[in-house]
Amino acid sequence: MRNVRIRPRPDGGRLLGTGTFPRLRGAPGLRVAAPRARSQSDLLRLPAMWGFIATTACLEFCRGALFISLLPAYLTDPQSGLGFSVAALGLIISGQYLADTVCKVPAGWLVDRFGPWKVLLPGLALAAAAVYLIPHARTLPLLAILACAFGMGGAVNWPAVLSGSVGLGGMRSRASATGIVFLAWLAGGGPGPVLVNFLIGHGYRTAFDVLAVVVTGAPLAAALGLSGALHRPGDPPAWRPEAEVAAERARGAGRPPERAVGGAREALADLATNLREASWLLPGMFVQMLALGIVLPVLVPFARAHLHLASQAEYGLMLLAGGSITVLCLLPFSRAVDRMGSKTPLVAGFTLAAAAVLLVGLAHGGGGLLWRVCLLGFSYALILPAWNGLTVGKIDSGRRGLVLGLFMSIEGLGIASGSALGGALYTLAYRAPFVATAGILAAVAIFYLCVPRRRFQARQGNGE
User: How far apart are CA 78 and CA 76, in angstroms?
Assistant: First the structure.
C-alpha cells in the first residue's frame, strides 16, 4: 500500500478511512490518509489511459469529419448521385446528435454495471459499422437510420471514458485525467473536418475509405482493453464492480453489507442523491452549452459575409490557431485545477470567454481577429478542466457513468436549443448572437463568483 500515512486523530475517536481505503479494525485513534494525486505523466504511463485516448480520438475524428465536412458536401452534391436538400441534410445530422444525447443516460448506467470496456466495444463497433455503410446508402430514410446508429454507438464513449479515466487517476487527479481525455478529443475532432476537405479533392470514395480505417481504431482499442492487454499488474483499475462500491459505501454509512447492493431502485435512489448534491450546477450546464450553441451555426456565414476571410483555408487557420492555444494550455491548466480547485479558473475562464466572444462579434474584418480567437482558446483551456473537475467531484464513484450520462444529455439539449436560437438571432442582426452569448457567459462568471467556495468542494477526495 504505497503513499499511505498513518496519523493519530486529535480526538482519539474511531478509525476512519478516506479515499477508497477500507476502515482498519482494532486501531482506534488512527486515520488512513488519501493517496497522493497522480501526475499527468503518471497517468500517461498507464496503457489503459492510452486506450481511452485512442477510442476518443478515433471516434471524434470521424464524427467531426463526417457530419461537419464530408456529409454536407457529399449529400448535397448532384455529382454524387444524391443531391439532397439542405433540409434533408439537417434531418440526418440532427438525428445523429439526438440519438447521441438520448442514449448517454442508459450508456452511463451500463458503464456503472459492466465497466467501460464491456460497453465501449459493442457501442463503438456499431458506430464503425455505420461509417462503413453510409457510402453505400442511397435513400434518405436509410441514411437517417445510419446516422442515428452512429449517434447511439458513439454515445457510450464519453460516459465510459470519463468514468474510466477518473477511476485510473483517482479523485485527487480528476481534472488532470479529464484534461487528457479532452486533449484527445481536440487532437482528433479538431483536425477531422479540416483534413477531410483535402481528401474530398481526391474523391468522396477516398474520404470514406480513410474514415473507415480511422474509425476501426476505436473498437480495436476497446477490444484490447476488454481483453486485459491494457492492464498491467499494479495498475489502478479503471472500474470497480458496482457491488463492491455499494458495499464500501454501506460500511461507511454504518449500514449492514447485505443492504448495500440494489438494482434499479438503488440506482434511482443514488441518482436522486447525486442530483441533490449537484442541483446548483444543473442550470449552469444547460445555460453554458446554450451559449455555445448560439454561435455554432453562425460562425461560417459571419466569417464569410462580415469578416471577409479570403477562403475556407483562412477560416480553418483561425480555428486552428484557437484550438492550438487550447491544446497547449489544457494539460498545465488541468494540473493547476487539481491543486487550486475549480472556482477561480471558472470565474476567470468565463470572464475571458465573454470578452473574447464579444470582441469577435465586433470585429470588422480579418485584421486583429487572430489574437481574439487565441484569447477564446485560452479561456476554453481554463474552463474545460475546471468544469469537468467540478462536475466529476460532485458524483458518487458508484454512479459516475449514470450521472455523467445525464449531465451530458442536459448539455446536449443546451447546444440543440442554442443552435436554433442562434439562427433566429442572426436573421435579426448579424452581431446579435455574439452579444447574447457574451452576456450569458458574463452572467455565468458572476454566478460562480457569488457561489461560496465550499460548494466547489468534491464529495470524495480532498479539496475541491
Answer: 6
CA dist 322 to 198, 316, 327, 372, 461, Å?
21, 10, 9, 9, 33
Please state the pTM of the whole predicted model.
0.71
Q: What are phi and psi of 17, to 5 degrees?
A: -110, 140
Q: How far apart are CA 237 and CA 148, in angstroms?
A: 32
**Residue reference for cell 462580415:** 306
What's the one-letter identity of residue 143? L
The residue among 270, 278, 349, 20 whose CA lies nearest residue 169 is: 20
The C-alpha cell of 145 is what?
437510420
What is the spatial distance between Cα 355 and Cα 347, in angstroms, rounded to a whole number? 13
| Strand-strand pairing, 30-32 and 6-8 | antiparallel
State residue 7 phi and psi, 5-degree precision.
-125, 140
Cell of 386: 475546471
Low-confidence ranges of the chain (pLDDT < 70): 1-37, 86, 239-271, 274, 300, 310-313, 315-316, 365-367, 396-399, 458-464
Residues near 448 by beta carbon (within 8 Å), at least 6 away in sequence: 284, 343, 346, 347, 350
Rounded to an integer, what distance in angstroms lies between the CA atom of residue 113 and that of residue 111?
5
Domains and CATH numbers, the chain: 1-35 (no CATH), 41-227 (1.20.1250.20), 263-456 (1.20.1250.20)
Question: pLDDT, tens digit, for every residue of 219-258?
Answer: 999 999 999 899 888 878 776 665 555 555 555 555 554 4
Maximum Cα interatomic distance, the chain, rounded to a whole number of Å: 80
Q: Which residues contact 206 (CB under 8 A, 6 or more apart)?
A: 199
